[in-house]
Amino acid sequence: MVVAEIGLPPAVLNSVGIDTWENTPALWRTKLPQLQATGNKYSRGHALLYGGYPMTGAARLAARAAARSGAGLTTIAVPEHAFAIYGRVAHEHPSRIRLAEIRTCPGCWRIAATRHF
Question: Do 74 and 66 form a contact (C-beta atoms < 8 A)?
């Protein structure tokens, strides 16, 4: 490894006023919606993701992240031939993630059916 000078004079670094802090829940917890005792998965928001094929990783990670971060329901819209791949993530969170079949038409796409696991 080589550590090299990049040309910033010390006076510039001193004038920037660098500020650092530790990212903890105390920084952002008050900005998140508070759960209500009368709430349910439909009142907590719905995330709709478009899942590609054959590269499925990003949509599957995003679906897990949406479910874990508090979305009440997450739908992944995918081509029918990709259901077997996406079915596993839907099976991991059956009450919060579902799959929707997409069908393409010239210049558009539409959700044809949904499946729960």
Answer: yes
